[in-house]
Amino acid sequence: MSLLRVCAFAKCLNRRSLFGECAVRVSLADRCQLCLCASIRGGAVRRISETPLLCQRRNVSFVIPKREDAKKRVLEQSQLLDVLEARIQQLQSDIFLDVQHAKVQFVKNPSSGRGVLPAKSPRSTPKEKSSISKSGKTVAKGASESHPSRWMEKLTQEKNNKLTKQQHLHQKIQKNVKEKPTAKSKGSKSSSVLPGTSHKTISTTKKTTVPLIKNRKGRMKLSDEIRAAVSSPVASSSAAAGTAAMAHKVSKGKQKGSKNPVPGKEGQKQTVADPQGMVKELAEVEELERRLSQQVSQWTSSSNPERLQEYSEGAACGDIQLSIRSYLEACVFAGDVERAHRFLLSQHRVMSRRKHLNTGVYNIIMRVWAKKGILNQIGRMFILLEEAGLKPNLGSYCTALECMGRNPNCSPKVIIRCLSQMEEDGLSVDDLFSQCVFRQDERDMVLKAVHIVQPDYQPSLNTNANQCSSSLVKDFYTQKSDHQYPKLDFTQEELQERFKRQLRIEQACTITIDSVEAAKPVTENMAKMRELLADQRAQWQKILLQALRESKMILANTNTKDYRLNLYPYLCVLEDREYVDIMIQSVASLPPSGESLKILASDLGNRVYTKYSVRQKHQNQMVEKLGNIYNGYTELLAKDTKEYDILPREHWCKLETDQSTGPTLQGGETHWPYIVTLELGTYMVDMMVKNLKINSDILNPAFDRKLIPILYHMYTFRSTRQVGFIKPHPILTQMQQEAMETKLTFDSYVMPMQCPPVPWTSVKFGAYLLTPTKLMRTVEGATQHDVLLEKCQDLHAVLDSLNQLGNCAWRINKPLLDIIISIFNDRGSDKLDIPPPLSEAPKIPHFNAQDPTYTASEKAHMKREVINAKKKCSEMHSLRMDALYKLSIANHMRDEIFWFPHNMDFRGRTYPCPPYFNHLGSDVTRAVLVFAEGKPLGPKGLDWLKIHLVNLTGLKKRSSLDGRLEYANTIMEDVLDSADNPLNGKKWWMNADEPWQALSCCMELANAVRSPDPTQFISHFPVHQDGSCNGLQHYAALGRDVIGATSVNLMPCDVPQDVYSGVAQQVEEFRVRDAKSGLKIAQVLEGFISRKVVKQTVMTVVYGVTRYGGRLQIEKRLKEIEEFPKEHVWDASHYLVRMVFSGLKEMFTGTREIQDWLTESARLISKSGHTVEWVTPLGLPIIQPYHRTRNQVLKSTMQHINLQISHDTKERPDTVKQKNAFPPNFIHSLDSTHMMLTALHCYSAGLTFVSVHDCFWTHALTVDTMNKVCREQFVALHSQPILQELSNFLLLKYCAGLPTEAKNKKYQEYRRLLLLLAKVPKTGDFDLQRVKESTYFFS
């Protein structure tokens, strides 16, 4: 034992790392051998700790083996000793090569953490340690339990690893590769082994003794690595041995957790079976890499490759940074500068928190000191920036100069020094005025400071003159001589008055309107309930006001830790009464069945943020400037002003440039993170639940009087998840229902705008006057879309198309609205899609579950009936309230002209911003909307109205236009009867597919045919032209698929081709064939395969529906057929979905190939750790926000809310969602591009144009012009090499710059991705120009 102690102690004194100097290491190895012999034979082993100090204090642990195992143990120990001796010799022979590489390969610990070794040991554990014990146990114990064969296998594997390394070096020498190795050294997982291997790269801790020069990232230069290989006595091992070692290594590596085929094994087989094929593939890869390397310089110049890197760096602390910024801004806005300053300093002092700060955070506080003219505080902030390792940016210098401008005693030398420092940092004074966001008089102060040292300086502003670079619209922006931009039918004075009205609505943030139920006579009970509710609300306001003030005092005084974010500043940005009003409003709109806490809290938080944002704009003094610019903007739109040849966005930008003084309209306010709005909302809900009470005897004096809460916090199950719910007390619900109040209060953004929207001029500015609006709708909390948009400088065409859609003026079809309201107030109509009132809901049965007269089965049946009745009541209430909101808004706007501002989703599909009432809604809402501007029908307008009516009935889908027109003429008697007596006549219109739009069209037709000259009849009615299975049209055009193109009307035909009927016919042929061969289910389906059965599946296949989803769709359709035997539904739906997919594959061969290519590309991209990203032909960047879901818990006093976040960029991509969503999302991005192109060119032709995705609307007069533009733009779009450009983008995005050596960890996946992306699906022979002649392409 004394020998063991001496050896262990000596070794601890000398050991700084696994290998110290060479001589020391050899002697230690000898000692180690001696120690091992002594310890194994003596039955004790030294326990090695991570540090020398611990090693001295705890260097021995005793393990006493059981006597009955003695014989077995002796045999195993002797075998183990042989292995260890061989290992020591191997280490001694390897010493130079391994030290020069500063890394040692050892087998991954299969049972880490189970033995007596410390859990953190792998990074600093010596290699001798692995030779003592690799299972985390002492040798004696390990020897008695482990199998010698394992040790022999590991030793063999070590030899193979070494051979592989040597072979990699040999290959480098042969190829004379000039690139630097990419494998990181210190503790990096990105080692030289192939994917999935169970090896790690461990750095020696003392690198100063290594006689090799490394680059700053710890990687060896290639020349040094080659020199090390040459100096090694075994570096000249044969290439064949190296190849074998590599194949062994790959095959071993892929055993760990991989279900995919092993690339290494496949490669090995391929080499043996087809060496020529392998050579050809390698040549192809080399050619692709050469081509990519040529484009990398262009790629880097456009800053695209940095995009992912920059974003990944910023995303790591993006949410925290956003929370910090919003907290500081709220403090400053509320006037609590001291709290903001303390908080920033507390974050700055601690390194772990300082990493979350960026220059913009410091600038928020600098802005405050600049307003006060305290220059020494600005200087301190610059010192803090330097301490944090951050550089001042334009905003920093802007605040410094503003402070100097406000300070009358500021020395010119200080200003000169500031400007010269800016210049050293590569920033110019012009950049200040063109890129900084100014508030109040900041710009004037900065200019004042500059004028002190440069009296003649005038800012040179960027007029935003750079044009759209997309070749699709280059001519649109450069050749404007023939453009005829439409004017609005208003004078400039009228538009300016409308602006003032809209501004007042948005400043109030809410609007109260009359409900359409107001027409009912007021009964005595209704009046009583309304009075009771008014009294209660007055009391609740006082109670909430007191509770809010008390809770704010507690929050203000109990926040002892300055570095912690709390809600206090967010509760100070508005007046106390405004918070109370928001809470009272939410009680009034709570449904009887309750609302999810998460949804209710988020809604409350967002309302506070909207009001705060509007107040900020007032404080920054931008409202007056907005009014001045809008007054100038009306010159472009008004009918009594001169003609302009510029677009709304261009005109607005010019006006902003001309009026550059004062605040910037595009304010740099920080949007509150979702977690902040949710926490604030939860706090407010908690206050409501605790404080809002009502007397229990308010409706029934017989009850005992006591105060009871009006809101209850309870839990319910959604699927398997428990969800917090806020439910109103039945007394409150009863009072609200019986009161039947005549007023509805909405947020201002819910209403259509009463003036033309502000044109989108940038990602952050457009749509409403003051209400914050996002250009791109995203999942709450997702920021990756905004990052891409802000980096994109070329969105003019996208913004201009949104502006064109938003500039369309609307009005209400009053006669039709009155008919709909009359039915709504008279019990509704399920057939006509008018929801009935709750009085028509089924009564909820009441029964006593304890009643012994009921059997168990009867009780179960009664419970099911109760559940179903409650569910039905809840659904009816939701539908009724939705209809009430839509009809009340329509009724409020009945005498107004109004506009719908637009934005888009992340695929580029456009939507109106007002959520309830818009032209994307149901048949009812579409029917009551007509264009504000009327145009004469012209020579063909009446025919288009008739054809449109037939289209709305859905009766003549397979007929030609002439056939539809002929049918319309035969039913004119019914049409006129419907217009004259809609509710008491023949009611022909009620049987149409879209009954309310059909009735509206009947009325328009009746007025037109009864006018003196139908060609001069002024029509406001929108005529629709709908794409024929638009998704398949884009696929067929991409693949130039002749058969597919014919099926979806890209090819001119005499009658419209119906792809759904075509697929149904194909499936019927398959069924007949199978029925003849005796398949029972095919025989059962005879006579049941129709267009309706297959339509939904065919329509959604193009958008990524799976066979599982398709089967459910067909099952639903079969269940609707009463004659079909229900016992065969399951088998029939399985059979039919297979046949539908087979039929589509035969009809659309090109489509399937493209879809498969897109799917597989997305799968490999997401497997490599990236989300799929692309750019539309109009330059809109798109990224799929699907990541693996992580749970985040929001802790509050009410309950812990579990947030499932699936858009976090720090998580790995969700491969399944990425691959399934890419084909439909890509097609959606193409159909939105086609719509935007059509919108732009219709606008330049003077047309009124709006769209509902792939359904285009215009006046009857201009249908032919719109059809021509629509076809031309589709041909122009698909004349671009869309798939080739996508391939190039994806190759540059995901394959450029990756190393080509086979040793790279991801090489196999990289090669497969490279070859796949480069192999664009082949196209057919379809001539795109034929689309221009196709009548039924859109019809």
UniProtKB/TrEMBL annotation:
GO terms for cellular component: mitochondrial DNA-directed RNA polymerase complex. SUPFAM superfamilies: DNA/RNA polymerases. PPR repeats lie at residues 358-392. It catalyses: RNA(n) + a ribonucleoside 5'-triphosphate = RNA(n+1) + diphosphate. Keywords: Coiled coil, DNA-directed RNA polymerase, Mitochondrion, Nucleotidyltransferase, Transcription, Transferase, Transit peptide. Residues 147-161 have a biased composition (Basic and acidic residues). GO terms for biological process: mitochondrial transcription. Its EC number is 2.7.7.6. Its main location: mitochondrion. Residues 197-209 have a biased composition (Low complexity). GO terms for molecular function: DNA-directed RNA polymerase activity; mitochondrial promoter sequence-specific DNA binding. InterPro entries: DNA-dir_Rpol_C_phage-type, DNA-dir_Rpol_phage-type, DNA/RNA_pol_sf, PPR_rpt, RNA_POL_N_sf, RPOL_N, TPR-like_helical_dom_sf. Residues 165-175 have a biased composition (Basic residues). Residues 500-807 form the DNA-directed RNA polymerase N-terminal domain. Residues 67-94 form a coiled coil. It is an enzyme of class 2 (transferase). It holds the Pfam family RNA_pol. It is found in: Mitochondrion. It comes from the Eukaryota. Residues 110-218, 245-277 are annotated as: Disordered. DNA-dependent RNA polymerase catalyzes the transcription of DNA into RNA using the four ribonucleoside triphosphates as substrates. Homodimer. Component of the mitochondrial transcription initiation complex, composed at least of TFB2M, TFAM and POLRMT. In this complex TFAM recruits POLRMT to the promoter whereas TFB2M induces structural changes in POLRMT to enable promoter opening and trapping of the DNA non-template strand. Upon metabolic stress, forms a complex composed of FOXO3, SIRT3 and mitochondrial RNA polymerase POLRMT; the complex is recruited to mtDNA in a SIRT3-dependent manner. Also forms a complex composed of FOXO3, SIRT3, TFAM and POLRMT. Belongs to the phage and mitochondrial RNA polymerase family. This is DNA-directed RNA polymerase. It comes from Perca flavescens.
